[in-house]
Structure to design on (119 residues):
């Protein structure tokens, strides 16, 4: 029985060390001169530490990315839904398709007949 408590104590130490290692595996190393210079400039302009400047910038960028649809076809699907809704709207004018565009046969803009001033 003497070996069991020693084994448990050893297991606890091992678990503790593993937990500590997991906590410290969050380091970030920047090995790009331009990125480092930009980070330092931003920190200097904002009057904060380099770490804080990077944190603020990353927070802003992540927030912007969250606004963008994640699926490649999401924007297309939204636009198609808007187009289907618009197609269901009733016509608001008696003008023909060519008249609505406002161009004559030569491509010159003109007023539709119904909108021309009477003489």
């Amino acid at each position: 029985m003497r070996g069991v408590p020693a084994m448990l104590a050893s297991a606890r130490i091992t678990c503790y060390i593993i937990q500590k290692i997991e906590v410290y595996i969050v380091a970030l190393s920047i090995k790009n001169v331009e990125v480092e210079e930009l980070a330092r400039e931003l920190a200097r302009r904002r009057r904060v530490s380099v770490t804080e400047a990077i944190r603020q910038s990353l927070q802003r960028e992540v927030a912007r990315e969250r606004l963008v649809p994640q699926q490649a076809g999401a924007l297309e699907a939204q636009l198609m839904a808007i187009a289907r809704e618009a197609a269901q709207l009733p016509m608001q004018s008696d003008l023909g398709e060519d008249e609505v565009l406002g161009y004559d046969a030569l491509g010159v803009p003109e007023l539709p007949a119904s909108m021309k001033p009477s003489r």
Observations:
- The CA atoms of residues 98 and 105 lie 9 Å apart.
- The first helix runs from residue 3 to 23.
- The chain is about 60% helix and 0% strand.
